[in-house]
Amino acid sequence: MKCLFKNSGVRLKNILLCVLTAVILSVQVYSQDIKFDSLASRGIRQIYDIKFGQAEKTFRQLIADYPDHPAGRFFLAMIDWWKILLNPDDESHDDIFFQKLEDVIYQCDQLLDSNPENVDALFFKGGAIGFRGRLRSLRESWLKAADDGREALPIVERASNLDPDNKDVQLGFGIYDYYASVIPDEYPLLKPLMIFFPSGDKEKGLKELKNTAENGKYAKYEARYFLMTLYYNYENNPFKAYEYASILSGEFPDNPVFERWKGRIAARKGDYTESAVIFKDVLTKSDSGLTGYTVLPAKREAVYYVGLQYKNTDDLDSSEYYFDKCVEYSKELDTDGESGFWINSILYLGMINDQMGNRGKALDYYHELLDMKEYGSSHSMAKKYIEKPYRP
User: Fold this and answer.
1) pLDDT tens across 273-295, in order?
2) How many Cβ atoms from other residues are within 10 Å of residue 25's Cβ?
3) What region, left, alpha or beta, does residue 292 occupy, with left being phi > 0 and alpha being psi -120 to 50 degrees?
4) Which of 42, 232, 284, 326 has the highest local Cβ count within 10 Å?
5) How far is Cα 259 from Cα 251, in angstroms, rounded to an integer?
């Protein structure tokens, strides 16, 4: 059975985040020497490996060895950004993240006072302002986020003009060109906001992103990440999305963001067996206490897809167990209304109990479903199975 999820609301929010702050991921670390390059590269990999303690040690060494370069302070802030990404509903890292970005902006301004064409200072100032806007977008402070986007874009463009051969900078422009082209057609309500930004070019954006993914030095991972998400969300090509997900999760096997994407993409392309294998691994890592795997959103998504595969293979007792866990987690997480995970789990629990011959329990689930908000065809399916028991 296919997954019933529709992510348009989440996708709309994520698109706006990307458009307002596409410039943030265009920062380029210019090699001062072999040691500088080695430290920067090591620390960036440690962030993606979710080894935050090691990354902090690496970037503090970078600051100590190169105190006049903004890279160390910028990437210290990126550790906090990834802590936010692991559980976006947790706002406990927001204040320290904002403060670290202000430190980066202040240092860059000092450098630009001495040399207005300091490319490093321009890139990292634009990046810091952009990330500030991205978090403001995540917290739905849209006007402040838009102001940050408008402020950051020309700063990074100016830096790009000073170094036109920079492959990494094409990441930000690729993200912007793609999403600025997509938004007006798919989300007309955002058209008024887009008049404040340059027009986009979808094909150009794809080309720029692929160039960075293949030839970038520091931004190639982010380019692959965005290619994965746009092929999944907008190009309707889960097979291409899966290629990038496999590369990312293969490079960083303990990154829960990349691993969860690979699992949900596997489900989208119809390989529920592989999806279940991936999400069982997520649950194993959660039980082991790996960073980012123990948060409820990760556990909920994992039990949902594992339960779905057990349902598909008629292992009904196991499926019921995992969907019950999904409902349990959803009751804790869904404070602003029922999610698709919760609604679908209730539907599937009704269907499972019909298959098991527990008609009374199945009817309870279907009536509960009718008391929840409509999600996809959930109400019509509930009414159908109230009238006639579900049979596979």
Assistant:
1) 999 999 999 999 999 999 999 99
2) 26
3) left
4) 326
5) 11
